[in-house]
């Protein structure tokens, strides 16, 4: 039997928020890469007693830059993305790992956050631009060697700390698919995000503009039609007819 694939979990943290990170107990097959932005504000000596944890202090800011540091520095065969406020589930991480062991052509596998897994769970399905919009950390894992061959990285214009403050995961996943990488959605739970996320905010005009930018980035010339369908689908979240119409009419 071949050796099991090793999973690196790249956790993005920012300043004092690193102190809130709670890692699971050590587990064979899983190692952690803690990426600390604003490291001078982070507690010293965190995780120094654990052999399965490596801390890397980063000089730049922005979530996509942190994710790209994970892509560069991950030592494992597989890479899962996570954040400081995520609760990780090792059994789910290893279940996601098994998808890659069963399919050597798989480049990206997406599970579900615990609070968003439908009931009953959906059947496995190929990923596409249509069904991957909900994907975010810690739901997806990539095969590092295959991804590096494709040359896909996170777009630094998207994500917290960037020009457009959300959408970095969706842009990344669709870039992988566009580059020819095989992606699969599976009903496993590698973690949970118990707190409100940026994507839950529908009142901030800057985030609405970011949503439009994500649609342009992913769909190109089809963006106006996709934006219309998106606006109608989420009409109840806009807080009224006028905000929805502004979202539909503006492409800036």
What does this structure look like?
- With 252 residues, this protein is of the alpha/beta class.
- It is built from seven helices and ten strands.
- The strands form two sheets. The chain has an eight-stranded mixed β-sheet.
- The mean pLDDT is 91.
Short description:
This protein is an alpha/beta fold. The protein has helices at 63-73, 90-102, 144-150, 168-178, 205-219, 223-233, 241-249; strands at residues 7-14, 30-37, 53-58, 78-83, 87-88, 106-110, 125-126, 140-143, 182-185, 191-192. It has two domains: 7-197, Alpha-Beta Complex (Spore Coat Polysaccharide Biosynthesis Protein SpsA, Chain A), CATH 3.90.550; 205-249.
Trace the largest sheet across and list its strands. 3-2-1-4-8-6-9-7
C-alpha end-to-end distance: 54 Å
CATH topology of the largest domain: Spore Coat Polysaccharide Biosynthesis Protein SpsA, Chain A
What is the number of domains? 2
**Name of the CATH first level of the largest domain:** Alpha Beta
Shape, per Cα inertia axes? globular
Helical percent range?
Answer: 25-40%
Number of helices: 7
Main sheet?
8 strands, mixed
Give the number of DSSP strands.
10
**What is the second-level CATH architecture of the largest domain?**
Alpha-Beta Complex
The overall pLDDT, averaged over residues, is 91
Q: Which spans of ≥5 residues are poorly predicted at pLDDT below 50?
A: none
User: From N to C, what is the helix and strand string?
Assistant: EEEHEEHEEEHHEEHHH
Strand content: 15-25%
Summing up helix and strand content along with how strands pair, one would put the structural category as: alpha/beta
CATH homologous superfamily of the largest domain? Spore Coat Polysaccharide Biosynthesis Protein SpsA, Chain A
Task: Give Rg in angstroms.
Answer: 18 Å
């Amino acid at each position: 039997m071949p050796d099991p694939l090793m999973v690196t979990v790249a956790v993005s943290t920012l300043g004092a928020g690193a102190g809130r990170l709670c890692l699971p107990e050590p587990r064979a097959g899983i190692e952690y890469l803690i990426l600390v932005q604003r490291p001078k504000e982070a507690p010293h000596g965190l995780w120094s007693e654990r052999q399965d944890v490596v801390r890397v202090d980063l000089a730049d800011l922005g979530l996509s830059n942190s994710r790209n540091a994970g892509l560069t520095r991950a030592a494992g065969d597989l890479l899962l993305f996570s954040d400081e406020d995520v609760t990780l589930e090792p059994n789910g991480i290893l279940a996601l790992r098994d998808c890659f062991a069963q399919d050597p052509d798989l480049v990206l596998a997406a599970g579900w956050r615990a609070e968003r897994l439908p009931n009953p769970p959906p059947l496995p399905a190929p990923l596409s631009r249509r069904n991957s919009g909900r994907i975010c950390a810690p739901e997806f894992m990539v095969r590092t060697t295959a991804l590096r061959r494709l040359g896909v990285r996170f777009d630094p214009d998207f994500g917290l700390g960037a020009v457009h403050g959300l959408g970095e995961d969706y842009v990344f996943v669709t870039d992988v698919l566009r580059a020819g990488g095989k992606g699969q959605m599976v009903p496993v739970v590698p973690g949970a995000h118990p707190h409100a996320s940026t994507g839950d905010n529908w009142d901030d005009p800057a985030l609405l503009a970011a949503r439009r930018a994500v649609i342009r980035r992913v769909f190109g010339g089809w963006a106006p039609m996709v934006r219309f369908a998106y606006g109608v689908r989420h009409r109840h979240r806009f807080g009224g007819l006028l905000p929805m119409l502004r979202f539909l009419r503006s492409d800036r």
